[in-house]
Amino acid sequence: MVTQFEEKGKIYTPVISKDPVRVIIQTIMNRVEGEIHLRPETRLIDELETSANFLAITNASVFTAEGSLAYTTRFLTINRSHIIWILPTLELIAPEDNG
């Protein structure tokens, strides 16, 4: 990684571009719908297998176990150990297409 220094000592690092992926996440207590940001050429499973304890979600909606909307927020972190399953919304199949 290239690091640049300003005359006054401020450190600049390159911006890492990431692509938003809409997901539905089932946790122990709630369902979360939002975006996970992945580096280009990175799969969702690769992001989930990192050693970080928390997963960052943007533009999130949190739903109760009964299905009602509890919160909306621009940023949320989820403890990875509380995730039961995660579904990229691009992988959803309409019920009539299930054959």
Tell me what you see in this structure:
Helix content is 5%, strand content 48%. It is mostly beta strands. The chain has one domain: SH3 type barrels (Roll), CATH 2.30.30.100. It has a five-stranded antiparallel sheet. The protein is globular and about 60 Å long.
The percent range for strand residues is: over 45%
Count of β-strands: 7
The proportion of residues forming helix, as a percent range, comes to under 10%
Overall domain count:
1
Tell me the structural class: mainly beta
Average pLDDT reading: 87
Radius of gyration: 17 Å
The backbone outline, from C-alpha atoms, is globular
* Topology pattern, helix = H, strand = E: EEEEHEEE
Distance between the termini: 49 Å
From the coordinates shown, what is the CATH architecture? Roll
DSSP helical segment count:
1
What is the CATH topology descriptor?
A: SH3 type barrels
The low-confidence runs, each spanning 5 or more residues with pLDDT under 50, are none
CATH class: Mainly Beta
Strand order of the largest sheet: 6-5-4-3-7
Major β-sheet annotation:
5 strands, antiparallel
Concise synopsis of the structure shown:
The chain has 99 residues and is mainly β. The chain has one helix at residues 44-48; strands at 4-5, 11-12, 19-27, 31-38, 54-63, 69-79, 83-88.
For the structure shown, list the relevant keywords.
about 100 residues, mainly beta, SH3 type barrels, five-stranded antiparallel β-sheet, two-stranded antiparallel sheet, 1 helix, about 5% helix
Q: What are the SSEs and their pairings?
A:
Elements: E1 4-5, E2 11-12, E3 19-27, E4 31-38, H1 44-48, E5 54-63, E6 69-79, E7 83-88
Antiparallel strand pairs: 1-2, 3-4, 3-7, 4-5, 5-6
